Amino acid sequence: MTSEQRKAVLDIARRAVEAALRGSDVRISSVVELPEAFSGAFVTLKHGPRLRGCMGTFRPLGDLAETIDSVARTSCLEDPRFAQQRITLDELNDLTIEISVLDQPERTDDPAGLEVGRHGVLIRRGTASGCLLPQVAVERGWSAEEFLSQCCSGKAGLDADAWRDPETEVQLFDAEVFKESAPGRYDPEPD
Q1: Which of 48, 60, 143, 189 has the maximal Cβ count within 10 Å?
Q2: How many CB atoms lie within 10 A of CB 182?
Q3: Cα separation of 186 and 8, whole Å?
């Protein structure tokens, strides 16, 4: 994506969060033409270094603008980790937004071969599932094996070594990740 497209996507997310916090159902669109090829998206909301919401989808919910609008609203209003302490309108000017636009997850027979910082992980076994975005391993300083184990135990509710079992489906995906440098501010890298 170009820096103009990234800025537009961040703007959609910010306006969607504000609309949701104000109780508005008005959907946010883009005046900038956005990429058509994507497989899903996540919106992460932080207040300083503290996570305040992160929700997403592995399938488009319309075009990219519609998907970001929907996921941003879900991140601020429905993240179950923050059910007792939802984001408020007073926090909006202190929130930074990070976007992850996903490629199609693909099953791997060599989970430990994932590239830390490049691949995200989606793990499924029976009715249990969990995912971690690529940037999480870098932020936490995890190795590939630690990343897989954390996804199993921390997200999917499985044993930490479940990723080693052939009955566990491990999928890897790439994501284009970009974020505001400060609340409401995007400093693009050169295209």
Answers
A1: 60
A2: 10
A3: 10
pTM of the model: 0.93
Question: pLDDT of 97-108, one tens digit each?
Answer: 999 999 999 999
CA distance 77 to 22: 11
Distance (Å, whole) CA 171 – CA 176: 17
The answer to whether the beta carbons of residues 54 and 67 sit under 8 Å apart is no
The separation between the first and the last C-alpha atoms of the chain, rounded to the nearest angstrom, is: 8
Which structural domains are found in the chain, ordered by start?
3-102+175-179 (3.30.700.20), 106-174 (3.30.1490.150)
131 beta partners = 122
Q: What is the pLDDT of residues 8-41, one digit of tens each?
A: 999 999 999 999 999 999 998 888 889 899 999 9
Strand partners, 177: 100
DSSP 31: S
**Cβ pair 12, 66 in contact under 8 A:** no
Q: What is the largest CA-CA distance in the chain?
A: 48
